[in-house]
């Protein structure tokens, strides 16, 4: 079939059975412990959450439904021969677990295109925003404004059966994903770019390329860059801020898990509400906003040291950043312990499309300088670059120079991952993560008994 919803519906009963079997046969086994250190340190590394769409290996980086980024660049359908994958193909993979054919990816493109028009009230609302409102705040606000059309909220009000929840959640997720490029382009044209007229989508273009097109960019390289960008930022397991916040807001009761009757603090917010929660988290400077911070930092380097910077000068600049109590943006990661493959694939793109671009050369030089310095601090667990160290370089090259807009592009992509998982969370009846919190006194007491 080329019908994504039908392909998903066919998968769900088997996966529900699989989860039931996992619980029945292994329910009482411990996946890991939680030390006092982990409880104080934000439950880092405690294996206590189910997330189907991607898995992060600390050494190797992310795999989407079992596939690494280079494998996806090879296997997913493309808009042009030898080019980058289209994100619609990844959406099919994230939703169904299967690599789509070109026809299946094309059907997703068409479904998204049919639902892409923004209601007037959302555009009006965006145009009333204070001119200095951060683009991420505008994104979250526009997503919330769309919530009036939520099919899940309407279905819940009319009392649909819990086994059917996933269907309106799927519809809302597709509606929202379809509209996000239009929202992002409207934010870009209206606010970031001082009131430029909006551009209608090109019906011949795919979802990712249309985002660049509606922002006002038509260069073939830029369209390819946007397809790649929108593919690699989709998902990064469930524990990061944007994924976890989306997941928490949407989570249901334990009694919705097949075979359970006991309830626990649910939220069950629809995809609009929960994705907005994820986006307000993504807007933080140490998470999604890091790509904006990287660009500002690189601009500082160029202003202070110039373009033909030596390794020694760069080293000095990095040390001065650290000594002033700041982080080196674009380096380090909470879970990864090697260079982020999302960095590597963007560096490969730059090598192919912009080998002589000074900002690319500067970024490549930083890769030689920063890790050694961060190692010398003795505390940074991962001294290597992450996804955000490179994305701004690609955007700048094609003329997308407004760095405070970058996280919006990250957010549009993130929707594909967290909303696909959201559909599965409802199909599997997954409940909220509700860890037991303890006071310091309670921890001291328990620890003394151990
Ligand atoms: N520069 C300077 N110091 C750094 C650092 C960096 N790039 N990365 C980590 N450290 C420091 C931490 O601040 C911490 O110091 P502290 O004990 O004095 O507070 C110490 O090293 C240990 O931190 P960690 O366990 O290695 O990292 P973490 O899990 O606490 O934080 C992250 C991870 C990403 C927030 C951190 O590496 C960082 O701040 N990096 C720079 C910002 C950045 O690039 N963020 C984007 C991440 C990817 C994403 O979410 N989009």
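^ structure tokens above, recovered residues below v
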């Amino acid at each position: 079939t080329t019908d994504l919803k039908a392909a998903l519906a066919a998968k769900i009963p088997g996966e529900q059975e699989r989860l039931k079997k996992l619980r029945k046969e292994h329910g009482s086994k411990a996946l890991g412990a939680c030390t006092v250190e982990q409880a104080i340190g934000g439950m880092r590394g405690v294996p206590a959450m189910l997330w189907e769409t991607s898995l992060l290996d600390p050494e190797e980086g992310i795999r989407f439904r079992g596939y690494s980024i280079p494998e996806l660049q090879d296997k997913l359908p493309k808009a042009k021969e030898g080019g980058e994958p289209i994100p619609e193909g990844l959406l099919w993979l994230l939703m169904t677990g299967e690599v789509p054919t070109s026809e299946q990816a094309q059907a997703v493109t068409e479904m998204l295109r049919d639902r892409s028009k923004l209601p007037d009230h959302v555009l009006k609302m965006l145009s009333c925003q204070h001119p200095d409102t951060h683009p991420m705040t505008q994104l979250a606000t526009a997503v919330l404004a769309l919530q009036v059309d939520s099919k899940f909220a309407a279905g819940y009000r009319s009392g649909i059966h819990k086994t059917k929840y996933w269907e309106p959640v799927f519809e809302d997720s597709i509606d929202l994903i379809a509209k996000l490029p239009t929202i992002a382009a409207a934010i870009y044209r209206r606010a970031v770019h001082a009131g430029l007229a909006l551009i209608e989508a090109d019906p011949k273009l795919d979802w990712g390329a249309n985002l660049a097109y509606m922002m006002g960019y038509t260069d073939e390289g830029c369209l390819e860059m946007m397809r790649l960008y929108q593919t690699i930022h989709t998902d990064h397991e469930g524990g990061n801020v944007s994924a976890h916040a989306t997941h928490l807001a949407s989570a249901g009761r334990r009694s919705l898990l097949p075979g359970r009757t006991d309830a626990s603090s649910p939220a069950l917010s629809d995809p609009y509400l929960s994705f907005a929660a994820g986006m307000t988290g993504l807007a933080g400077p140490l998470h999604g906003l890091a790509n904006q911070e990287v660009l500002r930092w690189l601009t500082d380097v160029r202003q202070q040291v110039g373009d033909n910077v030596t390794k020694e000068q760069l080293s000095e600049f990095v040390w001065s950043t650290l000594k002033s109590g700041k982080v080196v943006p674009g380096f380090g990661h909470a879970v990864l312990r090697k260079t982020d493959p999302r960095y590597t694939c963007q560096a490969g793109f730059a090598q192919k499309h912009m080998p002589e671009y000074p900002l690319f050369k500067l970024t490549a030089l930083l890769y030689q300088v920063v890790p050694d310095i961060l190692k010398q601090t003795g505390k940074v667990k991962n001294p290597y670059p992450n996804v955000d160290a490179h994305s701004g370089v690609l955007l700048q090259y094609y003329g997308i120079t407004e760095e405070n807009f970058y996280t919006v592009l990250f957010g549009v992509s993130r929707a594909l991952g967290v909303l696909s998982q959201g559909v599965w969370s409802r199909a599997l009846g997954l409940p909220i993560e509700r860890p037991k919190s303890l006071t310091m006194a309670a921890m001291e007491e328990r620890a003394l008994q151990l």
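Residues 166-192 form the longest helix (27 residues).
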